[in-house]
Amino acid sequence: MPTSLNNAKHEEAVDASWAATRGAVSGALKWGVATAMLGGLGYAFSPVYRGLTIQFKAYIQMSGMVLGSMLEADARLREFEAQMRLRRRLMKEQAMWASFEEKYGKEEDDEE
């Protein structure tokens, strides 16, 4: 049973959302580690940072994680879109060549 165009678009949207989700988790982890290390450096060397409340330090940590998740999710989504454009272009070219070969026949190197 052939899949409908609407069903194919739904599957593509689901795949895109998973790619963005994986990017968001990856970005939150990477940037979370980076902001935690910067927080550690701030705590070790800055009396101003040590004087901040725990709530504000948590806010700074979460801000870094949210920023990282947004940046990485966007990058992964753009990467996914580029892959989908490439796949569509290849499918379109394959269909064009298939119709060309159907119309004119395959080239036979053996016949001369």
UniProtKB/TrEMBL annotation:
This is Imidazoleglycerol-phosphate dehydratase. It comes from Triangularia verruculosa.
